[in-house]
Specification:
This is HTH merR-type domain-containing protein. InterPro entries: DNA-bd_dom_put_sf, MerR-type_HTH_dom, MerR_fam, TipA-like_antibiotic-bd, TipAS_dom. GO terms for molecular function: DNA binding; DNA-binding transcription factor activity. Pfam families: MerR_1, TipAS. The protein is mainly α. The protein has 3 domains: 67 residues, Multidrug-efflux Transporter Regulator, Chain: A, Domain 2, CATH 1.10.1660.10; 69 residues; 94 residues. The chain is 75% helix and 3% strand. Strands 1-3-2 form a 3-stranded antiparallel beta sheet. The protein is globular and about 65 Å long. The N and C termini lie far apart (61 Å). The relative contact order is 0.06.
């Protein structure tokens, strides 16, 4: 079956404007342009749009989606299996949050006790799931399955105080990165502090620390745009490069 751009927009819930934008990006090209100049979409384009929406539901950037879908060995069944696993993880995370809200309601009403640890379990579990979805595969390739398991376990077992200190350390790191990007900043004076703050932050999740592992992570920050965007989006463009270079220069 074939669809005009208006028909596929109604079918999918994606606006015609967005579909035209996908065409400009070469993310979703129409099957053909008819004699009247209208974009016509076929079954293959419908399937590709569905894949795009699956990946978008995982907050993946359009550029990254295009790279995945354009791979010569891309298979829809394999992609669907991956989507299914990610959605199951997301459902588990939502169920955990719902459970925490229910426990908190009972606690606030005086109906049942709730430990400080229980108040934060769901949020930590959600963070683990988000990190797994975004960086899991690359980190496993870099450090191995066992290290990742130990890291997730260490993070999940953080006390409330440790969890708050970890977040505060990251805030301080991002704040220092942001100020270091200003035109009048003397970067040479803050590089050591940047590295130490980053190292302190890592200690909350890394089962053990090594200089080589730290430098390896710095290299990943530079070569993988998903890692690069983490600090660039929080502190400003160039923040990730500044941090990575500081880490490599300090050892």
């Amino acid at each position: 079956m074939e669809y005009t751009i208006k028909a596929i927009a109604q079918l999918s819930g994606v606006s015609a404007r967005t579909l035209r934008y996908y065409d400009e990006l070469k993310l979703l090209k129409p099957k053909r342009i008819n004699s009247s100049g209208y974009r016509i979409y076929g079954e293959a384009e419908v399937d590709r749009l569905q894949q795009i929406l699956f990946y978008r539901s995982l907050d993946m950037k359009l550029e990254e989606i295009k790279k995945i879908l354009d791979q010569p060995n891309f298979q829809i069944t394999t992609a669907l299996e991956g989507h299914y696993r990610q959605l199951l993880k997301k459902r588990a995370s939502i169920d955990s949050l719902i459970s925490t809200v229910e426990k908190t309601l009972r606690y606030q009403k005086g109906e049942s006790p709730m430990t400080d640890s229980e108040k934060f379990e769901a949020f930590k579990a959600q963070k683990v799931q988000e990190n797994e979805a975004t960086y899991g595969q690359e980190l496993r390739e870099q450090y191995g399955e066992e290290i990742m398991k130990q890291s997730n376990k260490k993070f999940s077992n953080l006390t409330e105080e440790q969890y708050q200190k970890m977040n505060e350390t990251e805030k301080n790191l991002i704040s220092l990165l942001r100020s270091s990007l200003s035109a009048d900043a003397d970067v040479s004076e803050v590089k050591t502090k940047l590295v130490n703050l980053h190292k302190e932050w890592l200690f909350y999740t890394w089962p053990s620390y090594s200089v080589d592992a730290h430098k390896g992570l710095a290299e990943m920050y530079l070569v993988d745009e998903r890692f690069t965007s983490y600090y660039d989006e929080k502190a400003g463009k160039g923040a990730t490069k500044l941090l990575a270079e500081a880490i490599k220069e300090s050892h």
